[in-house]
Amino acid sequence: MKNRIVVFYILFFFSTIFFGIEAINDNYRQSYDNRKILPIDTKVTPQQMKKDIDYLVNILKEVHPSTYSGFSDEQEKIIKNAYNKITQPMKVFDFYFILNEIICSIKDSHTHLVFPSLTNYIFYDFPIIWLNDGIYALDNIYELKKGDKILTINNKSSEEILKELRKIIPSENDFWIKQNARSILSSELYLGYLNLIDNGVIKLTIMRNNDIKTFNIKLQKYKGIHKQKSDWISYKIDISKNIGILKIKKCIYDEHYKEILFKFFKDVSLNNIKNIVVDLRYNLGGNSLVTDEFLKYIDIEKYKTYGAEIRFSKPVEKQRKIYGTGYKKYLPSIQLNEKIEDKSLLFKGKIYVLISGKTYSSGNWFAAVLGDNNIAMLVGEPTGNKPSHYGDILYFQTPEVGIPFTVSFKRFIRPDTSKNDEDALYPDITVFTTINDIINKRNPQLEKVIEIINSSQK
Question: One Pfam family for this entry, by name (predicted)?
Answer without folding.
Answer: Peptidase_S41
